[in-house]
């Protein structure tokens, strides 16, 4: 007998969903039964924790452009999804959560858990998704599935939740009575594209041609619009500077002469210095967030601006742009590329090369250091030397994001680095690697995480081992919560609550990995590092390379300068709230 779990599985398969990540419960077993009958088209990946199911689905979505699908049961399963959903919401990642629910007749008993595991799931998910729905009947289910795909993939993409009561999941499906069909436009984001008005294209081209030192900031919206080729063509025509946000990395190859890396306090020193010298900044698929806009000090008062974004609310949220291009990023870049003659600015190009060269000189001293414990820069340089162009790097939050951004360049246009920057929460790398490995079978995935972030999801290593995934997990173990230690040391001269080790307790992540079925290698000395990474990269299965690193090392350039100069730099007092700088109108160019 076919049931409604079959209907859900069949519609997911018809929408091109190859993978569903999650953990079954009694209320959702019909879904798993339906998937098991269609393994030639759709498979389920069992995770150890529902939080990690959302992160795995997030990686699938970022690498394919299709909604990542995760499933959880009612109550304890559902209430573990927020971290992954908020990450997807803030990062504009299409995702669909299939959530179990009490039977319809029991919903009045959900309050205070009178009916076991019950709570107001719809209100809960409404706050962390683009939209959420409780399925009221069998007949409504197909249309709500279509709605879920349409909303998840429409501008601006994001997560949705479809809450399906137990009795509906288990109910008989009569295909003659309940027909299904899909909207093929919503298989992949963006669901729809729109082009900018002609006047904004003409105004943007005129502004670019008048600029002497133009710069473009590529954000995650470039990847969301599948516009890396167009972005690279635009950067080559611009005759200026190109930088990216963390999630925008890979919009253009960072090996290009015009590219200066990641604009972020954790990112490229050259990008931070050069962006201040631009007379025009083009914000392309970037929301000018706190970190990319350097605590909203950008744009400077004298800098003209162009914004390119599919979300109308982004144009003018923190500054009023000189030219606003309300448009799908790919459509806007296509029109700009057609209208803009190739630009040459020799003096600006020479200045970009000069600052980039100085940035590289600064990095060499860290890379070549023989210090003990090892400097993270040396570890990243060794990892970068072993990466192939097809490899995917997955960053966890905190300092790992900066070490990757500074020392592992993207060599091709396309998404080759995954960052959890929508919320910036710890614990992303291991489950996202599972999603990436399942999405791209045979592709090597490399994760980088500090010991604090790695601890969040260490149990999920067993999933990597069970599925024999080709994942190299690099753990930068400094025995501390590095960011917290830095903050506490600067402002309070007390780092006790940042310590992850004691004299009697030194967690050994490599040994834990071995116990979970992976290859585990522990590294303390510089001459051990190369051989350890060679072994991990050659291993046919998942591995963990744990490296003891300096607990005082930081990728934040302002604090590096303070340490180099041996003195204080202006900094906020403890408890300072960063306020949005005065909203202003950006000028036209003279």
Automatic annotation (TrEMBL):
Residues 201-335 form the Thiamine pyrophosphate enzyme central domain. SUPFAM superfamilies: DHS-like NAD/FAD-binding domain, Thiamin diphosphate-binding fold (THDP-binding). CDD domains: TPP_enzymes, TPP_PYR_POX_like. Its cofactor is thiamine diphosphate. Keywords: Thiamine pyrophosphate, Transferase. Pfam families: TPP_enzyme_C, TPP_enzyme_M, TPP_enzyme_N. Signal peptide: none annotated. The keyword Iron does not apply. One of its GO terms (molecular function) is acetolactate synthase activity. It comes from the Bacteria. Its EC number is 2.2.1.6. InterPro entries: DHS-like_NAD/FAD-binding_dom (IPR029035), THDP-binding (IPR029061), Thiamin_PyroP_enz_cen_dom (IPR012000), Thiamin_PyroP_enz_TPP-bd_dom (IPR012001), TPP-bd_CS (IPR000399), TPP_enz (IPR045229), TPP_enzyme_TPP-bd (IPR011766). Residues 400-547 form the Thiamine pyrophosphate enzyme TPP-binding domain. It is an enzyme of class 2 (transferase). Residues 4-122 form the Thiamine pyrophosphate enzyme N-terminal TPP-binding domain. Belongs to the TPP enzyme family. This is Acetolactate synthase-1/2/3 large subunit. It comes from Ancylobacter vacuolatus.
């Amino acid at each position: 007998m076919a049931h409604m779990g079959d209907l859900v599985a069949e519609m997911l398969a018809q929408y091109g969903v190859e993978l569903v990540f999650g953990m079954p419960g009694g209320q959702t077993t019909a879904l798993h039964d339906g998937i098991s009958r269609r393994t030639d088209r759709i498979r389920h990946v069992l995770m150890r924790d529902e939080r990690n199911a959302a992160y795995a689905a997030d990686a699938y979505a970022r690498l394919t452009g299709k909604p990542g699908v995760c499933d959880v049961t009612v109550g304890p399963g559902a209430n573990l999804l927020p971290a992954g959903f908020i990450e997807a919401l803030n990062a504009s990642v299409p995702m669909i959560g299939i959530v179990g629910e009490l039977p319809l007749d029991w919903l009045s008993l959900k309050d205070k858990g009178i009916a076991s595991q019950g709570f107001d799931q719809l209100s809960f998910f409404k706050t962390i998704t683009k939209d959420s729905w409780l399925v009221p009947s069998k007949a409504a289910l197909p249309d709500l599935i279509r709605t879920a795909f349409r909303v998840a993939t429409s501008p601006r993409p994001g997560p949705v939740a479809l809450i399906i009561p137990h009795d509906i999941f288990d109910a008989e499906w009569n295909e003659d009575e309940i027909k299904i069909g899909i909207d093929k436009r919503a298989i992949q984001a963006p669901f729809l594209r729109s082009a900018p008005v002609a006047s904004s294209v003409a105004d943007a081209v005129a502004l670019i041609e008048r600029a002497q030192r133009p710069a473009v900031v590529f954000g995650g919206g470039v990847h969301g619009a599948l516009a890396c080729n167009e972005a690279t063509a635009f950067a080559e025509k611009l005759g200026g500077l190109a930088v990216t946000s963390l999630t925008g990395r890979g919009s253009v190859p960072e090996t290009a002469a015009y590219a200066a890396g990641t604009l972020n306090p954790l990112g490229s020193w050259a990008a931070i210095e050069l962006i201040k010298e631009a007379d025009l900044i083009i914000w392309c698929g970037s929301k000018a967030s706190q970190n990319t806009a350097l605590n909203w000090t950008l744009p400077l008062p004298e800098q003209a601006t162009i914004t390119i974004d599919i979300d109308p609310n982004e144009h003018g949220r923190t500054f009023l742009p000189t030219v606003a291009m309300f448009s799908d990023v790919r459509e806007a870049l296509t029109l700009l590329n057609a209208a803009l003659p190739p630009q040459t600015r020799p003096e600006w190009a020479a200045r970009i090369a000069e600052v980039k060269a100085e940035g590289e000189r600064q990095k060499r001293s860290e890379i070549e250091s023989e210090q003990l414990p090892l400097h993270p820069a040396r570890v990243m340089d060794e990892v970068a030397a072993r990466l192939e162009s097809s490899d995917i790097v997955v960053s966890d939050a905190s300092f790992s994001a900066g070490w990757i951004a500074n020392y592992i360049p993207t060599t091709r246009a396309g998404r080759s680095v995954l960052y959890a920057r929508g919320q910036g929460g710890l614990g992303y790398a291991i489950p996202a690697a599972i999603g990436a490995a399942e999405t791209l079978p045979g592709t090597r995935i490399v994760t980088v995480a500090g010991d604090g972030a790695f601890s969040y999801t260490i149990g999920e290593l067993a999933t990597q081992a069970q599925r024999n995934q080709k994942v190299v997990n690099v753990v930068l173990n400094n025995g501390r919560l590095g960011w917290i230690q830095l903050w506490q040391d600067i402002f309070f001269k007390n780092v006790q609550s940042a310590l992850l080790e004691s004299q009697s307790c030194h967690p050994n992540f490599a040994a834990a990995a071995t116990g979970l079925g992976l290859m585990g290698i522990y590294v303390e000395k510089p001459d051990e590092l190369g051989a350890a990474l060679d072994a991990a990269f050659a291993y046919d299965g998942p591995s963990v390379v744990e490296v003891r690193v300096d607990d005082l090392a930081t990728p934040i350039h302002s604090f590096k300068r303070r340490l180099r100069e041996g003195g204080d730099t202006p900094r906020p007092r403890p408890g300072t709230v960063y306020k949005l700088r005065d909203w202003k109108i950006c000028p036209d160019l003279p």
